[in-house]
Amino acid sequence: MRAKKGDRLVQHGRVVGQHDHVVEVVEVLGPEGNPPYRVRAENGHETIMSPGPDCLVDHRKEDQR
Q: What predicted TM-score, i.e. pTM, was given to this entire model?
């Protein structure tokens, strides 16, 4: 998995009725876009994340930021 600053990570809900969790990558800490990432949730909380197999990268285009 490779991401860059501004991309979004989408972690899908694990059970029926659980919503997806979306965070924005604010810093890439691994080499060449690899995890771990510093991410920010919609409520402003920041944490370090190493995404698992249930997570997708939503690559944002420059005009969508």
A: 0.82
